[in-house]
Amino acid sequence: MYNTTQKLAAEFLGTFALVLFGAGAICAGHFAQDGGGGMLGAALAAGIAAAILSTAFSHVSGAHFNPAVTIGFWVTKRLNTLEVLGYWLAQILGGVLAAFVLKAIVPREEAWQPVLGGTPVLARDFTRLPAMGLEALLTFFLVLVYFATRSEDSLDSRPLSGLSVGLVYTIGILVAFPFTGGALNPARAFGPALASTHWANQGVYWVGPLAGGFLAGLIYDALFDRKPA
Hints:
The chain contains 9 helices and no strands.
């Protein structure tokens, strides 16, 4: 049984890695002039990082690395409010530190500044309401898959949980990247936004994913959670 400090450290490190690799891939894609703005690289980097870190830390903290996953645990009473606040703080701090580390080490003018350090942005003429809807819908399936593979009753699927979550991250980012930047995670959006001081449409990346995670937790428990007979 791991203590609170160990759980929060796992959440901090996991979120740090997700933001570092996801945002870093966008910076690298621009620097390499791959023509795709780093979309495929960002999707694969975030998905593979999620798969590996989830496998590594799932036994410690549950490997949320995303406030949207954590809010699903809150609404289903798997975590209390104080625990959720601790997880959120660790996740946000991990994302912020990753963004500032990335800002410090990659070429500023050639890689970091042109893409705002990997800060997700809305496509031109793609307004906030549909952007929230897209982020919410994709995060809904991300959190639903997390619950379905990490549930207390899903012992057979647990070895594949990290891979499953990583694949959903990858697919979700590939779908959303041209429209919203494909955050699917408030901590992923907040860290680079703070480092680049670019706050446009930041609410999209909080309201959408948190709403999706909230609904996914409720619906999973209502439809699939096994209640005592």
